[in-house]
Amino acid sequence: MTSIAAQPYDYELPTSGKVALVIIDMQRDFLEPGGFGDALGNDVSLLQAIVPTVKKLLEAFRKLGLPVIHTIECHAPDLSDCPPAKLHRAKSGLKIGDEGPMGRILIAGEKGNGIIPELEPIEGEIVILKPGKGAFCRTNLESILQEKGITHLLFTGVTTEVCVQTTMREANDRGYECLLIEDGTESYFPEFKQATVAMLRAQGGIIGWTADAESVLRSLE
Ligand code: C5J
């Protein structure tokens, strides 16, 4: 077993096959103009910074034959899986299901809802379609992890304080050993990212560990 130099202390890696890279919601809807993030009034260009790092991690996992899990925040075209509380939350701009420049906002199968081309999943990788912020909510993620014997999850993606943090908390409560890759996650609000990193690893790693991509990559070599 090797370890990753992490905070608040080193993270022990299990034997290969039990660790997975989780890439949360790297979708056009959050990273490109005309999608959901843009409709909520955010500067989506801020999220582009992590694309090369996530790509590097993805390529390393692929090369080593380690499992990769992609998530996509989306809803059915009839919005039957979108609670009114989520649908009516935004006060202005395009809402979930509205027609936007990249198709209907946050609707499965629309161009804007897809994962950005640089990180497109390949055959054999797990893709979780999720209607909530957390990837365990109304999905089969937990049974997939159990079936594959995955116990350790390394998190990347967007946004740090919403879908990434929610999923990491859900995973922690289910007994998974979670690590957030700091330069592989981003927020529309730099101060929220910073606060999330600090709160996850506070109190002896109450939710998990954090480390940079280089430390992760070095330990996988
Ligand atoms: C949000 C996400 N922020 N992927 N989704 O609505 O973080």
TrEMBL record:
Keywords: Hydrolase. SUPFAM superfamilies: Isochorismatase-like hydrolases. Its EC number is 3.-.-.-. Residues 20-207 form the Isochorismatase-like domain. The keyword Glycosyltransferase does not apply. InterPro entries: Isochorismatase-like_dom (IPR000868), Isochorismatase-like_hydrls (IPR050272), Isochorismatase-like_sf (IPR036380). Gene3D superfamilies: Isochorismatase-like. Signal peptide: none annotated. GO terms for molecular function: hydrolase activity. This is Isochorismatase family cysteine hydrolase. It comes from Tumidithrix elongata BACA0141.
